[in-house]
Amino acid sequence: MALAKLDITLRNTEAAISRLQVHVAEAKVLAPRFQHFIAEMVMLRLFSIFESSVAELAYKLAAGATYTNGSPPSLNIQANSVNGSRWLFLAHGRNKPKQNLQWTKASYIRESVQHVIPDTEKFVFNIRAHGQTIEEMRRVRNVLAHQTSTAKANYRDVLRQAYGANVQVAPGAFLTSTTRSTTRKIDWYLASTRVILRDAASGS
Question: Is 0.85 surpassed by the pTM of this model?
Answer without folding.
Answer: yes
